[in-house]
Every structure is written in structure tokens, then in C-alpha cells.
Design goal:
This protein is of the alpha/beta class and 348 residues long. The chain has 14 helices and 16 strands. The protein folds into two domains: 151 residues, Rossmann fold; 171 residues, Dihydrodipicolinate Reductase, domain 2. The chain is globular, with a radius of gyration of 19 Å.
């Protein structure tokens, strides 16, 4: 049987986009999820095999994995859904990929490094926009300045976000921020710091957020002090700052239910994705005051996620993987992102 892989959560916005791009590349993934009507419709549209099961249906999950080389897990929020999938991968000795950007998930996966090596499989979270481009940028800077002790990363995306991404962000709105300090992840207030970021084409004021690189960049580079910034609309920034004081209220079930119901379905249209782009900037410094900085220009975030996830999928299908817990740059190098069409990198 030809090597293939499982896309779980294929009917979500990002899962459907990855499915479409996979078919355009001649790939034949098996689609899976718990929504029978939507999965069947998508499978029929692209003439693909499919399986219907929830993540609590262990036997069906194991059976589906045995048909494949690995799973590309696309059904968030990953802080809830990732555990049963990665445990099934360890049981069945199948590689695990997901598109999370959640720090807690990366750290949970890192703790499975030994088990993954014993099973001979790769566990790699964050194979999308979270965190492939920023992870590659981090390692590129480390390679330029091996003595680096401090790393700052920033990104600015032009385009709107999907229902699933907004749902995860809303779920975490009351939990504050995070940085890495002296090798340890440290909780800080939401919107803890701001600074001006020069992305080359545009300058913007960024704010710290608990992005996945706070976890992953440490494993990729060994740099012990890491901050990640993004550019937010003023309304979102006000909400973040307000969450410092009423985070407990925003996290309550009634308020969460209300906020989640207000999130619109879907994500950016094809035309919106085509118009969108993302800017990334990074800076590494050492104790002697030496500095290295660089920028990336990439396609729109969801497009980037589909392209990077499938690039890594192709490598695994060709037998190119690193056993254990891995980050994209740690396994495939800082230039992995340059294998993606319409990506460019420049050094300051």
C-alpha cells in the first residue's frame, strides 16, 4: 500500500485548507474527524478515503493510525485534544504532527521525548505558521551569533483569523502572558511589554504574547531568555490589558460560553489569503553587546500553515525524520522555511 497519512480534524478551516493543498500536490491523505456529514462531504469532493470517530474512541483511533505513517492533527484546542492523539501514536509507533501554537502543548510533548525515541517516532507540534517560520528565524539567528543569550521574535500578519484560532485565543484570554527567563518559562501580565518593531516594509509597536516560540525556540537554540511580540489592533490590546484585572471573570464558564458564541464561523477567503502576507523579525544578543537581526517575508498565515505542514509531511513520507520530540528547525534546519514558495529572508 502506498504511504499515506491521517488528517484528523480535516473538516475545520485549516484542516480543509491542508486537504485541498495536499490533493493539489498529488497526495492522498485519509480524512478523519467526528463530524460525519462534513467529513463525508469533504472526502467525496476530493475523492479521498475517510474515517469517522471521536478522540475518545480509542479502538477506532488506533485502527486508523495503523493504516498510515503518521497523523497531522488539526482539531484544536490542542490543550484538550492533543493528549489522546499523541498517546495513540506512541502505542502504535506512528509519527505525530500538529498545528498548535500553545506553550503548554509544546512542553507536554517535550516531556514525551524519551518515549518517542523508544518508539522510534517523531513528535513535532507546531508544523504550521505556529511555529515554523519563527522557529527557523530563531535558529538562523543562533547560527549567526552562537554566543546569544537573549532572543526577541516578532510577527505581523495581514489578514483575518479563523473560528478555531479565535476560540483558542478566547479560551486563554484570562491566563496572562509568558516569557522564557534564564531557561525557565515565567508567567507575566498580559501585554507585559511593548516595543517598536522594524519589519522593513513597515514599523509597528508590538506587544508581548505567550506565543509557542517561548517554548520551542529554547529547544531549537538553547537561548535561555526569549520574548515574542505581535502587532494587535487597539481593541484587542485594550482587552488584553483589561484581562490583567478581570481575567478571573473572563475565564468563567458563563462568560466563556457567551464569548465563544460570538465568534464567527469560517476564516479568510481565498482572495483574502492571496492578498495577505506576514512579516517576521528577530534579534539575538549576547552578554558582550553583540547583536544579530534578520527578517522574513512569508505568505498569509493560513496559507503558510498548509504549505509548511505539507512540506514536513512530504519529508516524513520520504523517510526523513528525527526520532523523539523535535521542533521544525531542530530537525530540518534553519533553511526549512526557505523551501516554501514566496518566502524570503534578509539579514540586518
Amino acid at each position: 500500500m502506498k504511504k499515506t497519512f491521517l488528517i484528523y480534524g480535516a473538516n475545520g478551516y485549516t484542516g480543509e485548507l491542508i486537504t485541498r493543498y495536499a490533493v493539489e500536490r498529488g497526495m492522498k491523505p485519509i480524512l478523519a474527524g467526528r463530524n460525519k456529514a462534513k467529513i463525508e462531504e469533504l472526502a467525496k469532493q476530493f475523492d479521498l478515503p475517510f474515517r469517522i470517530f471521536g478522540l475518545d474512541e480509542t479502538e477506532k483511533l488506533d485502527t486508523a493510525l495503523k493504516e498510515t505513517e503518521f497523523v497531522l492533527h488539526c482539531a484544536g484546542p490542542f490543550s484538550i485534544t492533543s493528549k489522546p492523539v499523541v498517546e495513540a501514536c506512541l502505542r502504535n509507533k506512528k509519527h505525530y504532527l500538529d498545528i498548535t501554537g500553545e506553550i503548554a502543548v509544546f512542553e507536554a510533548m517535550a516531556r514525551r521525548d524519551k518515549k518517542a525515541k523508544e518508539a522510534g517516532i517523531m513528535i513535532m507540534s507546531g508544523v504550521g505558521f505556529d511555529v515554523v517560520p519563527s522557529d527557523c528565524l530563531a535558529l538562523h539567528l543562533k547560527n549567526r551569533l552562537p554566543s546569544a543569550t537573549h532572543l526577541t521574535l516578532a510577527f505581523y500578519g495581514l489578514g483575518k483569523i479563523s473560528h478555531g484560532t479565535q476560540a483558542t485565543m478566547t479560551m486563554n484570554v484570562g491566563r496572562g502572558g509568558a516569557i522564557r527567563q534564564n531557561g525557565k518559562i515565567v508567567n507575566v501580565p498580559a501585554a507585559w511589554k511593548t516595543r517598536e518593531i522594524d519589519f522593513g516594509a513597515v514599523k509597528k509597536t508590538g506587544v508581548t504574547i505567550p506565543w509557542g516560540d517561548v517554548a520551542t525556540a529554547f529547544y531549537s537554540t538553547g537561548i535561555p531568555n526569549i520574548e515574542v511580540y505581535t502587532i494587535l489592533p487597539e481593541t484587542n490590546l485594550r482587552m488584553l490589558k483589561l484581562s490583567r484585572y478581570i481575567g478571573w471573570l473572563l475565564a468563567t464558564k458563563p462568560v466563556q460560553n457567551y464569548l465563544q458564541k460570538k465568534i464567527p464561523e469560517g476564516g479568510p477567503s481565498d482572495a483574502e489569503r492571496a492578498r495577505g502576507k506576514t512579516y517576521l523579525w528577530g534579534e539575538a544578543k549576547d552578554e558582550q553587546g553583540n547583536c544579530a537581526a534578520a527578517r522574513l517575508l512569508c505568505p498569509e498565515g493560513y496559507t503558510m500553515t498548509a504549505l509548511t505542514a505539507l512540506k514536513i509531511a512530504e519529508k516524513i513520507l520520504d523517510g526523513n525524520f528525527c526520532a523523539g520530540f523535535q521542533t521544525p528547525a531542530k530537525c530540518y534546519g534553519a533553511d526549512l522555511v526557505l523551501e516554501i514558495e514566496d518566502v524570503s529572508r534578509s539579514d540586518e
